[in-house]
Design goal:
- A hairpin with a 4-residue loop joins strand 2 and strand 3.
- This protein has seven helices and 17 strands.
- The protein has helices at 3-6, 86-97, 131-143, 221-226, 254-271, 296-316, 322-331, and strands at residues 11-12, 22-28, 33-50, 56-58, 72-78, 102-103, 108-109, 112-116, 159-160, 170-171, 174-181, 184-193, 197-200, 205-208, 241-250, 272-273, 283-292.
- 24% of the residues lie in helices and 28% in strands.
- It has one domain (3-350): 4-Layer Sandwich (L-amino peptidase D-ALA esterase/amidase), CATH 3.60.70.
- The radius of gyration is 19 Å and the shape is globular.
- The chain starts with a helix and ends in a 20-residue tail after the last helix.
- It is α+β, with helices and mostly antiparallel strands and 351 residues long.
């Protein structure tokens, strides 16, 4: 047995350590939007947890434990807000061409679930993920191109710390982490496009988020939120979503996988301040690709740890200098560039 198998604590392993899934990205770097796809050639059982108030999604009802136990063939994460759902069409076409899908007798119907984040206020608002970009992400997955944390795939246009508008926000992106605990493998893939700040729970450091008016240091999104005194009208003009997936080799059914996704939400609460508001469409998928026996509680703790690391990496690996960031905010048509900050300033604004 290798060191990863023998260790009593989780160790990080490559994403390729998880069998039964292919992961790929495609993005338009200039327009700052993209797609991340997870393909399950042999199908995978999946569950879902939706904690945000404004999700843009496809086939999410299929993942309810009350629905039929049909395996999914792909999970798609994309930018483009609800427009980005078109990327799922490309994934379906790609899968059908390769004979991957649920056999209805008359045709194989690929089962594709999807969530989108709002990135129209950064880069270009008129360029969104489409079927061609969905196909390109599938090609990248099939070819085994490397998948790294940073401004890639669904995280190409992600930003964080937007409670006072895009002028005081920061760039974020896609985060990836894969952990092994003995024979149990748990991978987290997340596009962090949060209203709040991203914090490293292990050090207490704010990694990215709301900046002060001069962009010279961090403010505090929660303090700004409290300073609204209930006047949160402009908050809901700003649309945010942290969308992610937990992929595991544990042999769980749909009900357990939905619980696993719900336990993974702890990572959002630990690393994003605040999270799960009505301005967020936070969603987590959980999919099983193997037959490893595992305790659901242990798996849930491991999943949250993997997701927490992925969230922090998404922010750390995507930072831009102010000039490039602000130029891309201005570029977006109909952006939140001129959004009004809360009426009451906070002490954090003057630090």
């Amino acid at each position: 047995m290798n060191g990863a198998e023998d260790s009593p604590l989780p160790v990080e392993v490559p994403l390729s350590a998880l069998e039964g899934v292919l992961v790929g990205n495609a993005e338009d770097a200039d327009a700052a939007t993209g797609v991340t796809v997870m393909i399950f050639p042999k199908g995978a059982m999946a569950g879902i947890d939706v904690s945000g108030g404004g999700p843009a999604s496809r086939e999410s009802a299929l993942l309810s434990p009350l629905a039929a136990g049909t395996p999914v063939n792909a999970i798609v994460l994309s930018g483009g807000s609800a427009f980005g759902l078109a990327a799922g069409d490309g994934a379906m076409q790609w899968l059908e061409e390769r004979g991957i899908g649920f056999d209805t007798g008359a045709a194989r119907v690929p089962i594709v679930v999807q969530s989108c984040l709002y990135d129209l206020a950064y880069g270009s608002a008129s360029v969104r993920p489409d079927a061609a970009m969905g196909r390109a992400a599938c090609d990248a997955a099939w070819e085994g191109r490397p998948v790294a944390s940073g401004p890639f795939g669904a995280g190409a246009g992600a930003t964080v710390g937007k409670i006072c508008g895009m002028r005081r926000a920061m760039k974020s992106g896609l985060g990836v982490c894969c952990l092994r605990l003995k024979g149990l493998v748990m991978a987290a893939i997340v596009a962090v496009n949060a209203l709040g700040d991203v914090c490293d729970e292990r050090t207490g450091e704010t990694v990215a988020g709301l900046l002060d008016a001069g962009r010279s240091g961090f403010a505090d999104s929660r303090a700004a939120f409290y300073g609204m005194d209930g006047r949160s009208g402009n908050l809901f003009a700003q649309t945010n979503t942290t969308i992610g997936a937990i992929l595991t080799n544990a042999a769980f059914g749909k009900a357990e996988l939905s619980k696993l996704a719900a336990m993974t939400r702890n990572a959002y609460a630990r690393c994003i301040h605040p999270a799960g508001t009505l301005a967020d469409g936070d969603t987590i998928y959980a999919a099983s690709t193997g037959a490893q026996k595992a305790d659901i509680n242990v798996a849930g703790v491991l999943a949250a740890d993997a997701m927490a690391r992925a969230i922090v990496r998404a922010a750390r690996a995507s930072r831009l200098d102010d000039g490039e960031y602000l130029a891309r905010c201005r570029q977006a048509e109909g952006s939140l560039w001129s959004a009004h900050p809360p009426e009451r300033t906070t002490e954090a604004d003057h630090e």
